[in-house]
Amino acid sequence: MKKTVREAIIAGNWKMNKTPSETKALISEMKPLVSGADCKVVLCVPFVDIDAALNASAGSNIEIGAENCHFEKSGAFTGEVSPVMLKEMGVKYVIIGHSERRQYFGETDVTVNKRLKNALEEDLKVILCVGETLEQREQGITAELVAMQTKIALFDVSKEAAKNVIIAYEPVWAIGTGKTATSDQAEEVCAIIRDVIADIYDSDTAEGMTIQYGGSMNAKNADELLSKVNVDGGLIGGASLKAEDFSIIVKAASK
User: Which candidate in 63, 100, 170, 187 is catalytic?
Assistant: First the structure.
């Protein structure tokens, strides 16, 4: 981390977990554990939990995000939720381009770009996910792939708007598998992404952008991962569903 020039952010991605009542209980348990954090603390929760999460986190340092949004403001898109709706509810962050959305729901680099731009137009902060599969890593195309994903996602996004983008490097082979990239692997790819941002915009924009690592970051490995200069936080899956584990990661990012 390099807190002198960019924010450290620990964001939980709850995925399809927790009912509204469970949300209230978990956040109530988390609040005292993360209250003194020297980093941003964000919880991205299912749509049905957003209202409960906003109420439960009120008055604390926990900010609430959504796990996805649509690329239109309104219309005939049954089952979808727009950034306008999220903004009016009080949501501050939204995850876009998670590998599970790409894998199971047909999202592409192009639709990720459309969703990202729509969210930025509503002043939401976007956590943009990029990352390679195990096969792609073994083929030696990690750098090319994350560069392509990043460039397409940020196509036609101004330098000013990009200040509201956080990038989460999530190697697909390490999501929900228990496998974790080594701290050196995480550092290498986060540095590659930062170089791509410098190419798209400039070095100041690159230096100021928060780049997280996601992919089985947990209470045991957070210290080592977050010790790397280009790893500015984490997008946390399973560990964000356990108050104590999540707080340990927050404490690691607060050092």
Answer: 170
Percentage of residues of the chain with pLDDT beyond 90 = 91
Predicted TM-score (pTM) of the model is: 0.96
Residue tagged active-site, from 63, 70, 98, 100: 98
Containing H/E element for 101? helix 99-105
Catalytic residue check, 70: no
User: What's the CATH fold of domain 9-253?
Assistant: TIM Barrel (3.20.20)
DSSP 10: E
Q: Is 188 a catalytic residue?
A: no
Which two three-digit tokens encode residue 182? Answer: 């080594």
Neighbours of 163 (CB within 10 A): 13
Q: At what angle do helices 183-200 and 142-153 cross, to 10 degrees?
A: 40
Spell out the domain ranges in the chain: 9-253
In angstroms, the first-to-last Cα distance of the chain is 10
